[in-house]
Design brief:
alpha+beta, Arc Repressor Mutant, subunit A, four-stranded mixed beta sheet, 4 helices, 4 strands, 18% strand, globular, binds zinc ion
Length: 117
């Protein structure tokens, strides 16, 4: 499958790492065909031991960013030692991904102030 031009441009602009509290995760983009274990509904995963977020690179820009954010939230749960409180991490992360994406997009000025201060 051919990589979409907008997706490639986005990958080029993205930082190479994401910092989550005391952990820094490397972002790695792969061809899904390189790993036969990927199923059709999987767009990425976080490897906590390798400190790496692996993303399938042949997806739309929106899906790519959403997937990175989703995996970062799994990293937040791990870094914050929150797993012990959870019954269903996947459902929480799915819900938070949507909620926080909207929160960030709808309140850009608030988060600009938060980042500056
Ligand atoms: Zn997940």
């Amino acid at each position: 499958m051919k990589l979409d031009k907008k997706t490639q441009q986005l990958i080029n602009r993205l930082p190479k790492t994401v910092k989550v509290l005391h952990n820094t995760y490397k972002l790695r983009f792969v061809d899904r065909s390189d790993d036969p274990d990927w199923d059709d509904d999987t767009y990425g995963y976080i490897d906590l031991d390798a400190s790496e977020i692996v993303i399938w690179k042949v997806v739309s820009p929106d899906r790519l960013v959403d997937t990175i954010f989703h995996e970062v939230l799994h990293g937040c749960i791990d870094s914050g030692n929150m797993r012990v409180f959870l019954k269903d991490e996947e459902r929480l992360v799915q819900s938070l991904t949507t909620t926080l994406t909207c929160l960030l997009r709808d309140n850009k000025e608030l988060f600009k102030c938060l980042i500056k201060n």
